[in-house]
Amino acid sequence: xxxxxKKAFLFGxxxxxxxxxxxxxxxxxxxxxxxxxxxxxxxxxxTTATTVASGRGVLSYTAPAYGKIYARDLVRQRVLSFQVGxxxxxxxxxxxxxxxxxxxxxxxxLNPENEHELFFVAIPRxxxxxx
Length: 131
Known about the structure:
The model is unreliable at about 15-40 (pLDDT under 50). The protein is built from 1 helix and 9 strands. A 5-stranded antiparallel beta sheet has the order 1-5-4-9-2, with no helix packed on it. It is mainly β. The chain has a domain at about 40-120.
């Protein structure tokens, strides 16, 4: 092999090795949907959250204050979180595969066969909320 052919072979081999290793580094999937800023899947629930509903079928809760509601699928162990305002109603409807926050509907992958749990945690605000 000539010197320039050896260089071309070595360069091609290194480029191929680098290209095939590229998909294995640096990129991880995020569970956030940028089109729905209030929709934020998580894999945890804060220890300060209180269980407010559980079971199969439609679950609902009216938030007593500004905060977050966490909805957990007990079979898949998938957790979704939603910000809610004071007196806003949260409805999880697995049959329709929808979650509603004060009438705003989000389509989600819910299994109507699975049991779900709702948790609430109040989040303090700088300004008092209007009554």
